[in-house]
Amino acid sequence: MFGRRCGSAAAGVKRGDLDLERAPDALTLAGVGREYRRGVVALHPVDLAVPRGRFLAVMGPSGSGKSTLMQCAAGLDRPTVGTVRIGGTELSSLKEAALTRLRRERVGFVFQAHNLVPSLSVVENVALPLLLGGDDADERARRGLAAVGLGERGEAAPSELSGGQRQRVAIARALVTGPDIVFADEPTGSLDPATAQDVLALLRQAVDRDGHTVVMVTHDPVAAAWADAALFLLRGRVVDRLERPETAQVHEIIRDLGREQRYGREGCAV
Ligand SMILES: Nc1ncnc2c1ncn2[C@@H]1O[C@H](COP(=O)(O)OP(=O)(O)OP(=O)(O)O)[C@@H](O)[C@H]1O
Fold it and tell me: What is the predicted ipTM?
C-alpha cells in the first residue's frame, strides 16, 4: 500500500515459517470508528492496511484521535464500528482471554515510559512475554538483548540503565515473540535528540533487517521521517498521507493541521 525507503524486507523474505509475500497484511482496519459516548466521535470510520515489513507513522494535533486509532488497532480497545485484523485474525471474533493471548503473543508494545518492571533484571523483562512460551525464554531474551546492543547488560536492573538503553530493552521485549506488529506510542518522547535517533534507527533496522512491522504514534516530524509512510489525523479523520515522508514536509503538514484545529477550518478528506 505504501512505498519503502530502504531495502525490501517484505519482498521474498521469510521469517520463521512465514512467507511474507503470501502472508496477510500485518494490520487491516475496515471502517474502524470509535464513539466514546453519543456525539463524541474520537475516530470516524477509517480503512487502513499495513503490509508486513513496513513502518508507518501516525501523526496529528493533540486530540486528533491517534491514541484511539492505536488502541483499537492493537486490541486494547474495542471499536464502536468496523473490523480490525492482526495477521488475518479478526479481533472482534475473540473473547477477552483470546484477545489477551493474541496481544501477548502477536503484538509488541513500546511506550514513551518504557514500562519495564523495576524488580526484574533487564533480561527477565525481555523474557516476560515468553514466560508461558517454553524453556528457551532466557536464551531468546538474551539474543533479543544482543540484537539491540545490550547483550552485556542482561543482569542489570532497569534503574541502572540510561533512558535510551531502557527504551532499547523495551524494543527487545516488544520483538521477542516475533510479533505480527509492533505499536510504538511516542517511543522517543522522553529522549534527547541523539538518543532518539538511535532508538529510531533500531526500529528501522527491525523493519529492514528482520521484516518486522511497526506502527508508531509520534508528534515529532524528525521521528516520522524514519517511517515508510506517515498518516495524518485531524478531529478523528485521516486527512492526509505522505509516502517516504521527509522532516520538512511533515513539519509543514503538522503546522497546517495545528492551525486548522485552532481556527476551526475543515481538513481535506483523503
Ligand atoms: N475515554 C474517553 N472518553 C471520552 N472521550 C475520550 C476518551 N478518550 C479520548 N477521548 C476524546 O477522543 C478524542 C481523541 O483522543 P485521543 O487521545 O485519541 O487523541 P490523540 O491524538 O492521541 O491526542 P494526544 O496527542 O493529546 O495524546 C479527544 O477529543 C479526546 O478528548
Answer: 0.96
Segment 39-66 shows an average pLDDT of 94
The pTM assigned to this predicted structure is 0.88
Q: What percent of the chain has pLDDT over 90?
A: 74
Cell 473490523 locates to: 83
In-domain check, residue 2: no
Residue 43, in any domain of the structure: no
Residue 5 has pLDDT above 60, yes or no: no
Q: Looking at the 3D structure of the chain, how many domains does it have?
A: 1
Query: Burial, 242: exposed, middle or buried (Cβ in 10 Å; 0-12, 13-18, 19+)?
Result: buried
Q: Which of 237, 215, 216 has its CA nearest to residue 63?
A: 237
Q: Which of 37, 68, 112 to mutate to test the pocket of ligand 1 (most atoms within 8 A of CB)?
A: 68
Return the best residue to mutate from 32, 35, 40 for the ligand 1 pocket (most ligand atoms within 8 A of CB). Answer: 40
What integer is the mean pLDDT of 90-113?
Answer: 91
Question: CATH number of the domain that 223 lies in?
Answer: 3.40.50.300
Q: Which domain holds residue 106?
A: 54-65+95-263
The DSSP output letter for 134 is -
Instruction: Tell me how far apart the alpha carbons of residues 69 and 58 are, in angstroms, rounded to a whole number.
Output: 9
